[in-house]
Structures are given as structure tokens and as C-alpha cells.
Amino acid sequence: MKSRKSRIFLVNRTSHHLCQLSPTSPRMRGANVLVVDMLGFVDCHCHISARDFDKDIEEVIDSSKQVGLLALLAVAEHAGEFEKIIELSQRFPGFIFPCLGVHPVQDVSPEQQRGPVSRLVDLDAALPIIEKYKDHLVAIGEVGLDFTPRYVSNDTDKESQRQVLVRQAQIAKELDLPLNVHSRSAGRPTIHLLKEQGVEKALLHAFDGKPSVAMEGVKAGYFFSIPPSIVRSEQKQKLVKQLPLENICLETDSPALGPEKQVRNEPKNICISAEYISKIKGVSLQTVMEVTTQNALRLFPKLKSAIRP
Questions:
Q1: pLDDT tens across 258-269, in order?
Q2: What is the pTM of this model?
Q3: Of 86, 43, 85, 60, residue with least CA distance to 203
Q4: 182 labelled binding-site residue
Q5: 136 marked as binding residue
Q6: How close are the terminal C-alpha atoms of the chain, in Å?
Q7: Domains recognised in the chain with CATH numbers
Q8: Which end of the chain is more exposed for a tag (fewer CB within 10 A), N or C?
């Protein structure tokens, strides 16, 4: 086992930023400092393959490591970005871990003459690539249901999404992998479908449903990841208050769901999620860090090869 090193962090109570500092930094004088014996953070849901990061990916990764990020799970939305995610995982081995899957909402061009709802045909291009890289994957994702009215207008659309999710749940079971799940405006239907399919390991990212519905997922053994947008979301704050810490993981969903609207989110903001959770739960930042990282290791066991507590 690797020995755990103490690191020093400065918590900015107004901006919610957590910054790793050198003990000799002049900013240490009179500052509110937390000295923690820690493992580090895991970003369980991140779109690091997004074009938003093409120009400064190295800087983005470096800055995230500076705040204690140990690993991030790169999720996909469609087959077109699978190879890029695999390439990034090879470029940053032991730090970026790939998850491949088909999102319930797809980007479609006018020429395709179809709505954005995922269909089984969207899996045609995805399945061969998933099969090719199955030994490298830590999860199947991003998959799920999205019943937001602007995307779903009828029961046929909902059933189409269900079929795609069911198939990917089957694939995950065949490969013995967890699911990284999207459930916008469909919390209860998503949890019910996962339970019906016998899914035992699942992460529900940025869950937007009622805490009472989330507790159904807790009873099924599922985990819920919390993004930095919690600082501006009363719903997320209520969710964290209700959820057991033992079922909470961290995420950024970068480049989306940052602490500020219309501003690119980055993996380094993982510490914002952690600090806000510590405030709500009334526990130390160290406790949040250690418990959420252990939760991530339980849910995504392939991370253990890179993260040794």
C-alpha cells in the first residue's frame, strides 16, 4: 500500500474554490487552512472529450491534479466520440478512464429526418467499438432516459429510449461493468427500469428528481454523483441532505454544470462539490474526500489498479 501524504488546502469560503497551496505560500498567513491526510478526489462523470477542451487539455488536466484529483471517468454520448475517449485514456494513462455508451438524446442533422431521441439503430455503430475496447472500459455510459419535453413528445419516444437503455444494461451485465446513468426529468422511470433489469451497480449522475425517489435508488444499492452546480441548485442541496454519504460520489460533468452558468466547467472544480457536501453534511472535507473516493472504488473496481488507498 502506498503511504498517504498530507496536503494543505485553502478553502475560499466566498467563491467555494479549494486550492492546494505550498506550506510556504504567503497566502497561508492568517488563512483558514485545512490540513488533511487524504487520498484525493475521483471525478465520476466528465465529458473531457468535448471540443471545449481541445486547445488546453494539458493545462486542464494539470490544474485538476493540483487540487487533488486522482482520476476522472470520461463518458461518451455517441459512437462518434468513442475513439477520441480511448485515445485520451491512452494519452493520460492511470488518470483518464473510458466509459462508452449511447446517450438518450442524440445530436442529429436535418438531413437525418428524425428526432433527437436515441434509437436502437444508434447502437449499430457503438456495439462493435464497445466490443473492441471492452477490456479497457470501467463502465458503460453515458446511458439512461431523458423525458425533457423539448426532446420527448410522446410515448413512442419514451419507449425508444427504454429499448436503448435496456440493451445497454444487458451489455453491462455481460461485461460485468457498472452503468453511468443520465436520468433528467425521468428519475423514477430510470430507477425502476434499472431495478427491473437486475442492474446492481449504477451511478446516477446529477440526479434531478425528488430525494424520496433517490432513496429508492439507495435501497437498490445505487450511487449518486454531485456536480459543482450544487452551489446554485436548491434541488441538489436537498438531495445531498437526504442521501447517505455512503451513496454519494463526486462529478463535474465538465464542461457543463459548473458553479457559474454559461462558464466552462473543469475537472478542477471537483473540490467545489466536495466542500459543499461537507458543509451540508456537517462533516470534514477529509471525510467527504475519503468516503466518496472509497465509494468510487466500490462502484468502479477497475480504478483500483491506479488508485491504491
A1: 999 999 999 999
A2: 0.87
A3: 43
A4: yes
A5: no
A6: 7
A7: 39-305 (3.20.20.140)
A8: N
